[in-house]
Amino acid sequence: MIHIRALCKQYGSQAVLRGIDLDVPAGQFLVVLGPSGAGKSTLLRCINGLVQASSGQLQVAGFDATDSRARQVRQLRREVAMIFQHHNVVPRLSVLKNTLTGRLGHVSTLASMLQLFSRRDVALAMECLRRVELDHKADQRTDALSGGQRQRVGIARALAQQPQVILADEPVASLDPKTSRLVLHYLRAASRELGITVICNLHQVDYAREFGDRIVGLAGGQLVFDGSGDALDEHHLNRIYGAPEQAATPTPVTTASSTLSPSLQGALP
Ligand SMILES: Nc1ncnc2c1ncn2[C@@H]1O[C@H](COP(=O)(O)OP(=O)(O)OP(=O)(O)O)[C@@H](O)[C@H]1O
Ligand SMILES: [Mg+2]
Description:
Layout lengths: L1 E10 L2 E11 L4 E5 L6 H8 L7 E6 L2 E2 L5 H10 E4 L11 H6 L9 H5 L4 H13 L15 H14 L4 E5 L7 H18 L2 E5 L3 H7 L2 E6 L2 E6 L6 H8 L2 H5 L5 E2 L6 H5 L3
Parallel strand pairs: 3-8, 3-9, 6-7, 7-8, 10-11
Antiparallel strand pairs: 1-2, 1-4, 4-5, 9-10
Helix pairs in contact: 5-6, 6-7
């Protein structure tokens, strides 16, 4: 579903992603761990074409994500839904209308947008709300919901887009532990039951182990771990999070499972 080779991203003279090789099969729930500034958000933004890679190959759901032509970017974004830390829902709209916005790649004004929904879209949006157990709140204003419930609306909206890929950037950063696990449960259900490929940036190692089919560790813009939650021991955690000066010059990737891509294995000393 996602094929990344030698992906680099620079901001001015700062190299933020430094040669990422990563293959993600369809339906996998992949967690990305890494210290602040490691490049996790930049990686997700490259995958959905929000940020233009400086070099390397990046294929997502059959599209070339390095192609910046407007039509290509639109097609890519239809297949890739995003979920952010601050559940970017529209507070004064109803839960259902927020979910329905997932049906549209881009709209000029809310008014024109709201006239475009068919009965089929509404039925689909309701089905997506059922998946996150919020269908009974469909007619409520979203600002009447808790943060965790709003994040679930964000998931419902992502599902309503019927994407092949969901990219979640710290979706539980501002939620309590119980709510966090519930949100991650719905995200994992999306991958298990709908076959959606999910890439989820997290800061919580415990959640990564509990929910990730696979974990990759980013440090200083390079992959330094690729394996299962079981393989992520203290040694590997030190490689990922290490001291700040270590993070700036990460050691080569450690193979912890057969999920490591062949080119990555080739990079081993
Ligand atoms: N638009 C930008 N312009 C310039 N530098 C940027 C831009 N976006 C990110 N960076 C820099 O790239 C580096 C990686 O940022 P990124 O947001 O990808 O890290 P992150 O791993 O998501 O961190 P966090 O865990 O804090 O969210 C940082 O040093 C950041 O300052
Ligand atoms: Mg980030």
